[in-house]
Amino acid sequence: MATAHNATLPIILRNAVRASPSDVRRKNRSLIFSLLFPRHQYSRADLGRLTGLSRVAVSDVISDMIDEGLVVETGTETSPSGKGKRATLLGLNTAHVRTISIDLSQDQLIQCAATDLLGRPVQRMEVALGPDNEVSLDAIVQIVDQLRSELEDDRFIIGIGVACPGAVKDGVVLESTQLGWRNADLAALLESRFHTPVTLVNDSVAAMLAEHYFGQAGANLLFIKNDRGIGSAVLVDGVPVVGDNHASGEIGHISIDPVDGPPCPCGKRGCMETLLSARELRSRMRDLDTAHRTQVVEDAGRRFAAALAMPIGLLDIGDVCIYGPADVINMAFLESAQRELDAMSSSQFHQHTVIRRCQMGADITLRGAAIAAVQAYITR
């Protein structure tokens, strides 16, 4: 009888293309930067051990990033024995380069800021819109132009990051029901005007990046942004999930009452955004007393958790972070949502999922857009 043997069959790669030196260098640069970001310090030897890169490769990348003003020598490490030469530590130089960050997600407001390498605003500007004013491309160009004119030195701007509600891809706003845009090539417009690379990112993804790097999140997160509308973003093993059509996280337009729900600008009825957004809940609570306001919020928390139970069970995510105004995303909402989610998803094989309120503050989307621009610059 013939004996079957497990064998590894050779894989023939047709038309395989070897990575160019510039590709390798870009990957090395991105890897080293990710280890230092946002506040870590390592010696060159540490970076070599952590990345597996040679001493020459590490020194080459570090030398370039020091010349660009991205990295700085921060001091020397403490030797446990107190003997021998102490290694020089490296960290990010947050004070040198700048990004321009734009937040288009807020109601009747365009926010723009010059930010440092960690996305912290160092100079800002706002344009308040009237109730009948729409966000226009010209208004965005004007606010960036004005902010840049007031900077002491704009030579070190490495990119422009824009956070926009809706589905975005390759610098184009494919569709944003909040802004009323479809196929708006915002990145091309800004790049042609300012000759600076532009990174366009969904506003929920931007906010999630800020929560991931500077908030309480770990490598796996379901982030919900509930204010003007409802959007979400998913982080798995530290990587944002984009989706086949770059529309991952558009839960605001999932219908939870397709028959009797109110019409939505997307064309359906009963979308979550039309029933449970902060704007809608505030409108519903406007003339109610405290007890009935609490009832509205608790009911919203239950319906919210019921809608999230399926993706949470599918992805087995234990951290749900909700960003929104305190009068809506409050303890009544969170406790009601937690009870409902526990009742729907608790099992022996699923870890307990915690629903919590985001503590990052009003600049979360601005910071996230800046982080996206920095990451794009590093890998460009």
From TrEMBL:
Q: Which UniProt keywords apply?
A: Kinase, Transferase
- GO molecular function of the protein, one example? glucokinase activity
InterPro entries listed in its UniProt record: ATPase_NBD, ROK, WH-like_DNA-bd_sf, WH_DNA-bd_sf
Q: Does the keyword Kinase apply?
A: yes
Q: What is its EC number?
A: 2.7.1.2
Top-level taxon in the UniProt lineage:
Bacteria
Establish whether keyword Cell cycle is in the entry.
Answer: no
Family matches, as Pfam families:
ROK
PANTHER family listed in its UniProt record? BIFUNCTIONAL UDP-N-ACETYLGLUCOSAMINE 2-EPIMERASE_N-ACETYLMANNOSAMINE KINASE, ROK (REPRESSOR, ORF, KINASE) FAMILY
The family note in this entry says: Belongs to the ROK (NagC/XylR) family.
Protein name per UniProt = Sugar kinase, ROK family
Species: Bifidobacterium magnum
Tell me the classification of the organism that encodes this protein: Bacteria, Bacillati, Actinomycetota, Actinomycetes, Bifidobacteriales
